[in-house]
């Protein structure tokens, strides 16, 4: 049996913005962002306000060190309509580890397992979606290892992505 993860998720606050802005400039994060990377760092004040309407932004900590971020959104309540018209019962996740020295050590897995548990704690949630760039084969392999299944390719704005889904029936 593996040792319990030391990663924990907590709600992001305005005090996390310097870390979020720094991570937005990291080459490994930029490589996963597609066209959005060309627009420059996100306005994290606006992002936190936006997610307060339709989801949540969580900071992953390892031994009290902020290491990454995870965003969970209810696409049915998303005023931007990024996912288009969506029926209730879904959540969508964005995730990244900001600290390059902590990549490939299982922290992303711990973050995703906690995020899935958080999503499925809501009885109405039937599935969780994720949309990595089609070119991000490492991320796609990671999500498939976790149990996500391919839905298919989809173009979001100017980015070619692969939508994957994790069903409640597979959670356990």
Automatic annotation (TrEMBL):
Coiled coil location: none
Superkingdom per UniProt: Bacteria
SUPFAM superfamilies: Acyl-CoA N-acyltransferases (Nat) (SSF55729)
Enzyme class: transferase
Entry's EC annotation: 2.3.1.-
Entry annotated with the keyword Glycoprotein: no
UniProt keyword list: Acyltransferase, Antibiotic resistance, Transferase
One term of GO molecular function: acyltransferase activity
PROSITE patterns reported in the protein's UniProt record: GNAT
Domain N-acetyltransferase: 7-169
InterPro entries the record matches: Acyl_CoA_acyltransferase, GNAT_dom
Bilayer-crossing regions: none
Pfam family, one: Acetyltransf_8
Name the record gives this protein: GNAT family N-acetyltransferase
């Amino acid at each position: 049996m593996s040792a319990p993860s030391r990663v924990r998720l907590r709600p992001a606050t305005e005090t996390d913005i310097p870390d979020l802005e720094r991570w937005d400039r990291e080459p490994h994060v930029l490589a996963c962002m597609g066209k959005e990377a060309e627009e420059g760092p996100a306005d994290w004040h606006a992002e936190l306000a936006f997610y307060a309407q339709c989801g949540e932004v969580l900071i992953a900590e390892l031994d009290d060190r902020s290491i990454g971020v995870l965003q969970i959104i209810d696409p049915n309540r998303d005023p931007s309509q990024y996912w288009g018209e969506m029926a209730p019962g879904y959540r969508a996740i964005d995730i990244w580890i900001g600290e390059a020295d902590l990549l490939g050590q299982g922290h992303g897995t711990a973050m995703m397992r906690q995020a899935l548990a958080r999503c499925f704690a809501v009885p109405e949630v039937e599935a969780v979606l994720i949309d990595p760039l089609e070119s991000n084969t490492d991320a796609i392999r990671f999500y498939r290892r976790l149990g996500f299944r391919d839905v298919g390719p989809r173009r979001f704005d100017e980015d070619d992505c692969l939508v994957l889904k994790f069903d409640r029936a597979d959670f356990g």
